[in-house]
């Protein structure tokens, strides 16, 4: 019985810590970057995410491109995420990763890639729209998430 109570309490503690970590994300910038003839558009969202450590010289963040239809529904999305070190004089990207997802039966993610250069996490994604099995539209999007020497993400 003690083991069961311990297991339940440990699980609850773990789940509450995940909630606290995810609640620490804050959107720092959100804007429409590109619009298309059919009314669809690409919305960019920049988020800062607090690292698991309380190191004041580390910043993590994510820049997302949401491809939306004219009604505001997300058809596909991709993001570049990075971990940065900064000290007030310089900044360096130590890790970069991308992820992409399609939320429509018509759109497929064709390719994605990540890289890092100096203080920038870079990502690229190509998505294709298919109608009756034929590719009718291709959208390629590149994102760069940069950290300034003072820890500001852009």
3D structure, described in words:
By secondary structure, the chain is mainly beta. Helices cover 14% and strands 59% of the residues. It is built from one helix and eight strands, in the order H-E-E-E-E-E-E-E-E. The chain has one helix at 2-23, and strands spanning 26-35, 41-49, 58-68, 74-86, 91-102, 107-117, 120-131, 134-146. A five-stranded antiparallel β-sheet has the order 1-2-3-4-5, with helices on one face. A three-stranded antiparallel β-sheet has the order 6-7-8, with no helix packed on it. A hairpin with an 8-residue loop joins strand 2 and strand 3. The chain is elongated. It starts with a helix and ends in an 8-residue tail after the last strand. Residues 2-23 have low confidence and may be disordered.
Topology, pairings included?
Blueprint lengths: L1 H22 L2 E10 L5 E9 L8 E11 L5 E13 L4 E12 L4 E11 L2 E12 L2 E13 L8
Antiparallel strand pairs: 1-2, 2-3, 3-4, 4-5, 6-7, 7-8
Task: Tell the overall outline.
Answer: elongated
Give a count of the beta strands, DSSP E runs of length 2 or more. Answer: 8
pLDDT < 50 runs, ≥5 residues = 2-23
Strand content: over 45%
Task: Record the strand order, biggest sheet.
Answer: 1-2-3-4-5
Quaternary structure: single chain
Order of helices and strands: HEEEEEEEE
The description of the largest β-sheet is: 5 strands, antiparallel
